[in-house]
Amino acid sequence: MIYLSVIILVGVFYIFNKNTSTSNWKQPTTPFPNKWRIILTKNVAFYNALNSDEKKLFEFKVFEFILNHEVIGVDVTVTITDKLLIASSAVTPIFNFPEWRYPNIKKIILYPDMFNKHFETEGDNNRRILGMVGNGYLEGKMILSKPALHLGFTNETDKKNTAIHEFVHLIDKLDGSIDGVPQVLLEKQYSIPWIELVNKKIEEIYNNTSDINPYGGTNKAEFFSVASEYFFERPKLLAKKHPELYHLLEQIFKQDMDDMNLHLKRLDISRNDPCPCDSGSKYKKCCGVN
To answer: What is the superkingdom listed in this entry's lineage (predicted)?
Structure first.
């Protein structure tokens, strides 16, 4: 699953990551907790599709993200499941770039519901926003609706994942602007084909001839995030209905999602199943919660 071209691109990511304070950057010094592994297995389809070595890398990056980013709840309790789902959303798009860090995010703020542009969560004041990143007050921050965060991992058919959507915006922003052209990921020869294809796909949305989320027609930046959600949530369907779009997203993220699609699912674990932590014990005797 990991492309050789990752090696070539490590130097590119060093340029964008070198401004992150290495003296304050924390790395895991203890094993990935077994109970966290169970949560990933039960909730994160992308994780379940990885082989054993890739799972270890995913766990390391998730652990690293949790150590270096604060999750704050506004009128909600923040659980370890919340943190693991947020971290998984951050790691999934950049999984094949092992040196990647997000230098433009420090805090994730969880809201109890949708909110409006004034960050209000109560009253009938056009509360339609599920997630947001940006400048000003939001510099270095992300706001997510907690229900939307969880829905992105429980609904496997809707082509949507709010948290992945917002992290893709942060990736897009690393070249200086959120404009739908992620220069930090997009190899030069694909830039013009990407822009031309985005314009074409947005026109299809306007003409009601596309199954892509209509919100993607808002502008190029939103299209990139919406298309990325589709890519990670329903890769086989995207490859079938939008092969050119699938191919370019494959080049951007260095991931063949269609290849891993057969195993892209969450796993239900019963009390008598073998524990996913490879202890050899039954789940109820090992990581199960009574």
So the answer is: Bacteria
Contact 282, 272 (CB under 8 A): yes
pTM: 0.85
Beta bridge partners of residue 72, listed in sequence order: 109
SS3 48: helix
Rounded Cα gap, residues 152 and 92, in angstroms: 13
Cβ atoms of 104 and 129 closer than 8 Å: no
Q: How many Å is the maximal CA-CA distance in the chain?
A: 56
Query: Whole-angstrom Cα distance, residue 205 to residue 16?
Result: 33
CA 129 to chain centre: 18
Work out the angle at residue 286's Cα, subtended by the Cα atoms of residues 284 and 290, and round it to the nearest 5 degrees.
45
User: Which token pair is 47?
Assistant: 């994780």
Within 8 A by CB and 6+ apart from 290, the residues are none
> What would the pLDDT profile of 179-211 be if each residue is shown by its tens digit?
999 988 888 888 999 999 999 999 999 999 999
Strands 140-145 and 131-133 come out as antiparallel
Nearest one of 274, 148, 165 to 218, comparing CA atoms? 165
Task: Compute CA distances 3 → 32, 78, 117, 251, whole Å.
Answer: 25, 35, 40, 10
For 237-272, what is each residue's pLDDT tens digit?
Answer: 999 999 999 999 999 999 988 666 555 665 666 677
pLDDT tens, 11-30?
A: 444 444 444 445 688 999 99
- Delineate the domains of the chain, giving CATH numbers in brackets: 29-169 (1.10.472.150), 175-259 (3.40.390.10)
Instruction: Report which residue type is found at 88.
Output: S
**Residue bearing tokens 């070595």:** 53
